[in-house]
Amino acid sequence: STQSRSSAASDVYKRQTLVLPGASEEASAPPDTSPLIGLDVVEEAAQTPPEDSAPAQLRAVQISMEALLSGNAAALLAQSGGNAAVLDMKPASGVLCWTTHQTLEGGESPISPDAPAIEAAVAGLKEEGVYLIAQMHCFRDEALAENASFALSSSVETGGTSPTEGGWLDPSQRVLQVYFSNLAKELEELGFDELLISDWTYPDAQEGGFPDDQGRLPAAASFEALLAEALGRGESPSEGLPPVMLGVETDEITLLSGENSSAGMSFSAFSSQADRIWCAVEDWSGLAGRFSQEELQRGMLVLLGTQFQEDLPSPAQAIMARPQDTY
Length: 327
Prior knowledge:
alpha/beta
């Protein structure tokens, strides 16, 4: 059973616990256990979706910001046969679709001019009982990659380095790991039921030779630990709130073989932190060795595709409009 989350955007920053570099202790302030913090209209509590609102069989549909702002999100979701809306709140462009209070020394994430309207639309969908999933592209960020100190570099024949194509950042930088962990916490506080973390490791090493494969797995593991801490996924969830559901997007190589050191991905590492694993899969033969029937039935594996199907190994599916060259 989970506690209901506030849908009011104005409440976001009053309840946030930030992860600081090197921090290992919870914030000293006592948790505020009031069910609705900072709301002027208490009667809105009756509109909060019931507890345990996760669909039994996830049918997620990515909704564009245009559709969200036009007020058509719920209708599009119903027409597609979906029961959960995925909103790309931090696309690979690096433009944030909400107003953040986070700062990053040496850089700044641009904020969409529609951010206030997007936050209001999210709150409206929440009041309607729509199950909401926020997608966040982490280390693929075209805006921040313009800063050479953040950008991932690849080795070149001359012995120097050049920025990796595609707007990739260096996942080994702790300052970036902390920043994205705090952004994820803000999305949780906006009232999203679930987070989908994409581009959370490296691009495939074939795109360049920096850093070497052996250095990529520890860097990804470090970010996973910080992210879990920020979202209160340890023994003592921050501020008395249960942890938001966490999903990570991976590639088929990692899913079926257990590891892709070129990208810094390890199945055992992120499966221990995540509630769901999102992946486009063509070869089903290796799934039996990765998931039990019970795990598949409860939706641990979310299959990405272009339409919902009834004959797939996992009942949890998602229709996503996403770049094909993510990995």
